[in-house]
Design brief:
This protein is an alpha+beta fold. The protein is built from six helices and eleven strands. The chain folds into two domains: 160 residues, Pnp Oxidase, Chain A (Roll), CATH 2.30.110; 86 residues, Split barrel-like, CATH 3.20.180.
Amino acid sequence: MKDQPSPLRETDDEARKLARVLLRSARHAAIAVLDPETGFPFASRVLLATDIDGAPVILVSKLSAHTKALARDARASLLTGEPGKGDPLAYARLTTQCTAEPVEHGHHFHERIRTRFLDRHPKAKLYIDFPDFLFFRLKPERASLNGGFGRAYHLGGRDLVIQSPANEEIAAKAAEAVRDLVERHPDVASVLAVRLNAPESASWRISGVDPAGFEIISGDFLVRYEFETLAADSDHICSNISKIAYSIP
């Protein structure tokens, strides 16, 4: 009897980029945890942002079932990737298995995560500082990418995080650098929206800057752009953004 061909393809740079975009451009995700009472998988929906290294971040109530589950067992799985018209299985999606790390008030990078989360989800300002809410940083351990029919890949956790010595420096300086860029070029976000074929919407803004890329946001719309190479510092990021916006296509 002949061996069945493997459904998996060799993981290449194109697959890694698709996986990173599916994770980093998701505004929300389905999360699965292990119910501490029954051991059964428990699925819910969470808002999603990313830390400076691209690791997913969630903000949750301490009273929720998935928060209680993570307190007992830090293993979690995220499903990201939105379907469009037609067959939902024809669209790319990513399952990321993670280890959840709580980030309480007073943690040395709590303020950074809070700022980045609010930049993506401004309405969370209504409850983000409630004492019964906390962040989890979800460290990717491995992932399964389905890029559509016949395009399945396995990835390691390192494929999904930004391995850059400049992470901390960029986290400290990026917001100011982007403000300076917008002051010099007030139309930069709207020009980027056109260049990146973003949906028609008003009031686009730059958000989520990191060494690997950036997002533009308008209301419920978010578009992620990944650089070809990692940026060395915040000035390099802004230079890349300017070239994307204003270079001759």
